[in-house]
Amino acid sequence: MPTPRTPDPLTLEVVDLIGSVVARYHEEYESAAAGHALTGAQARLLSLLSLEPLPMRRLAQRLKCEPSNVTGIVDRLEARGLVERRPDPADRRVKLAVATEEGRRVARSLQDSLRFAREPLAGLSEPERIALRDALRRMLAES
């Protein structure tokens, strides 16, 4: 069995920087969510639903959690008028979670308040942003 290579200093620095970016993004996301009296999980679910209605099972897959957790999150968002459940027109046995107009407004406000990544990225040239995007896609595809 091959032994793992010891990472070189550049790789270690990149891993550390990725960790710092992720931590700062989560801090800002949690703060933005709290500004709307939402948990981070509620905000992420609402952001997903602002793009398209989704069945509960697909939401659980996207959020990488159990469907029972999604049910609780949807229940709380539904009680606030941000989400509603509707039958799936393609299969009426399936319930879709759908962002209400107010839910979409809150999701837009959340996205607008997330400046941490957007502002530094605006300082990069388009070729730099494309290279970064492509490198991140490649990293995700290989994991």
UniProtKB/TrEMBL annotation:
Gene3D superfamilies: Winged helix-like DNA-binding domain superfamily/Winged helix DNA-binding domain. Keywords: DNA-binding, Transcription, Transcription regulation. This is MarR family transcriptional regulator. InterPro entries: HTH_MarR-typ, MarR/SlyA-like, Tscrpt_reg_MarR-type_CS, WH-like_DNA-bd_sf, WH_DNA-bd_sf. It comes from Streptomyces thermospinosisporus. Residues 11-141 form the HTH marR-type domain. PROSITE patterns: HTH_MARR_1 (PS01117), HTH_MARR_2 (PS50995). The keyword Transferase does not apply. Pfam families: MarR_2.
